[in-house]
Amino acid sequence: MKTYKITEKSGEGAHGYVYRGLEIGTNKVVALKKIFVNIEAGIPKNTLREICSLRVLKARNIVRLFDVTSMGSSVVLVMEYLPCNLQEVLKKTDLNLSQIKTYSKMLLKGVEFMHKNHIMHRDIKPANLMISPKKVLKIADFGLARIYNELDSARQYSHQVATRWYRAPELLYGARNYTPSVDIWSVGCIIAEMINNAPLFPGETDIEQLAIVLSTLGSPTDENWPDLKELPDYNKISFVSSPSKPWMLILPSADASTMDLLRKIIIYNSKKRLSAKQCLAHHFFVTGPIPAKSDSMPDPNDYKSDSTEFDPKDFDEIIEQINKI
């Protein structure tokens, strides 16, 4: 990896570490996502999915992949450097409605571009929504992304996707045949979280997650969820019948246009959820207050995760630890 120089460690994930680095010659700041590769198993599927997705998805609101290189037995993804994510912003800041609309608009533009290119993310959550130094929200972490072909309606997918709090109810019932509308459900949960300053459906287990959703939206009916009885796990568990909560209680601080948008996204029937394009055309974005301009958005440098200076010896220690597993 002679083209890049590592300057500090900025994070770690399930498959490796993320470093802040510089491109030698230009001094451009980059993120270096180092993924350990098992020689026998090959490159992890999640890594291949991320590489393939990001080579296709080149848009303002999606993280950019600059290069793919190697370091010893590891694959290194060279990406644009993004100081923080939305989860970190939400922990420290109560966003106003103008700021929420700006983040929501950027998120939906990224989702619209993904879906237009037949890719569903399947793990949209605040931690995977990065904020650039110029305050632009960008969708990242495409390890669970899959190509979606609407002409192949019989195609089966894993239902064990999406972080629990943002997982669509059809996935909680074991759906193997679903559409990019699972991403739209996640978007709705995130917008609601920004409004309420707290997760909308914070379940500790899959069963509790489903129970919270049902107690909030009310027990499903043949009218509002016609395909429910066809889902694999429908008969595995039953819940006490409950009415839906009024949206004024679900989102006590939201105005009428906000509630109208979310009640068209956070619904059981995935076929009736608004698409990202339809969401962007909703009056939520033109009803006052209007989306905030860049100079009124949070500065991502104020939320930057703690990082550590990089010592080249770290790699030897990391490899040694991995070999012991």
From TrEMBL:
Pfam families linked: Pkinase
Top EC class for this record: transferase
Any single Gene Ontology cellular-component annotation: nucleus
Catalytic activity of the protein: L-threonyl-[protein] + ATP = O-phospho-L-threonyl-[protein] + ADP + H(+); L-seryl-[protein] + ATP = O-phospho-L-seryl-[protein] + ADP + H(+)
Keyword Transmembrane among record annotations: no
Keywords: ATP-binding, Kinase, Nucleotide-binding, Serine/threonine-protein kinase, Transferase
All residue ranges annotated as the Protein kinase domain in the record: 4-285
EC number: 2.7.11.22
Record-level Gene Ontology MF annotations: ATP binding; cyclin-dependent protein serine/threonine kinase activity
Organism superkingdom: Eukaryota
Keyword presence, Nucleotide-binding: yes
InterPro entries attached to this UniProt entry: CDK, Kinase-like_dom_sf, Prot_kinase_dom, Ser/Thr_kinase_AS
Similarity comment: Belongs to the protein kinase superfamily. CMGC Ser/Thr protein kinase family. CDC2/CDKX subfamily.
Name of the protein: Cyclin-dependent kinase 20
Organism: Ceutorhynchus assimilis
